[in-house]
Structure formats: C-alpha cells, structure tokens
Amino acid sequence: MTRELAAALMLALLVLLLVLIWRGWQRRVGRYGHLPDLTEAASLGASPDLQFSLLYVATTEAQSPLERIAKRPLAFRSKVTVGIGSLGLWLTIPGETPVVIEADLLRGVGRATWTIDRVVDSDGLVVVAWQWGDTPVESYFRSVDYPADDIVTAISAVLPQQEDV
After folding, report:
1. Other C-beta atoms within 10 Å of 36: how many?
2. Which is nearest to 53 in space by CA: 16, 78, 22, 72?
3. How many angstroms separate the CA atoms of 27 and 159, rounded?
4. pLDDT tens digits, one per residue of 10-57
C-alpha cells in the first residue's frame, strides 16, 4: 500500500467517524424536540432577588443521570448565572437567551455527587428537579465560589412545595 492510499483511507475513516458523531448528536437533539421552549427572562418583566455565578453541568432525565437532555439552552456545559426569585430560576448562559424555569415547574432541590461527565467531592453538585413539559428532569450545577448549602436554601424558598431530591 502506498503512502498516499494509506493517508486517503485514514482521512476517509476520520470523515466517516465525524459524520457518525454528528448523526448521533442530531438523533439525541431530535429525541427531545417535543420539549417546549423555556420562558424568556425578558418576557417576565421582573428580576431575581439573588444571583450566583455557577458552573452548569447538565440537565438529565429524572432519576437517569446518564441521559443528557440535548435541547438549547441547556444542551452543553457552561458557566451560568443563576438568579433566584419568587417567579423561579433565571438562567443566564453565555451565548444563549436568558431563560426562566418558572417556580411552579420546580419539584425539589438537593445535593449530588455525580452526573454525566462529572464526578465531584461528596455532595459537590446542586441538583434541581423540575418538570419540562411532560418530562421530569434534573439540572446539575457546581458551585466554586459559594457554599452549596446557601444555594440549596435559596432555591428551597421558591419551591411550590418542599420535596427532597
């Protein structure tokens, strides 16, 4: 086999691999296409009472922390500013339109040690359980600058009914 043929085969395999990865991601995005868009923060005409700069880790199907929800604006890990107020949770993710998870959709808040793509020290993640359309989901956040207990307490104050996650 010549050097040129070997290079062409490797390039073809690379292109095939990239196409398969892209197709797999598109199928995952399509699987969650039925989820409604989140409420845009600007449409509420209100602002949060508290704000925390956190790391957004993932949103997964409830009780299935390996099933990442691939729907914008929550499809990718990122820095996030989480605002907490009586109307719910404001999420400001760089490059995305700020959205609100309304208080009546919130189901619980707690602590976690792991989710997809992330394992941290004991109870190092804040997990928020909520209802996205007809799908119960859990969103995971990691705090670097704030005590996680303060965040859990603040979110607990806006829950429609207290539940442990």
Report:
1. 10
2. 78
3. 33
4. 999 999 999 988 887 777 777 777 888 887 887 877 788 888 888 888
Asked if 145 and 109 count as a contact pair (C-beta separation under 8 A), the reply is no
Beta strands in the chain (DSSP E): 39-40, 50-61, 64-68, 78-85, 88-92, 99-102, 106-112, 114-115, 118-119, 125-132, 135-142
Residues of the chain with pLDDT under 70: 117-123, 161-165
Half-sphere exposure of 31 (CA within 13 A, CB side): 14
What amino acid is encoded at 73 in this protein?
Answer: P
**Residue 146 in 3-state DSSP?**
coil
pTM strictly above 0.85: no
- CA neighbor of 165 nearest in space, from 142, 118, 155: 155
Q: How confident is the model at residue 18, as a pLDDT? A: 92
Token pair of 17, please?
């691999």
Asked if 90 contacts 98 with a C-beta cutoff of 8 angstroms, the reply is yes
**pLDDT, position 96:** 86
Selection from 65, 52, 47 nearest residue 148 by Cα: 52
Topology of domain 39-156, CATH: PH-domain like (2.30.29)
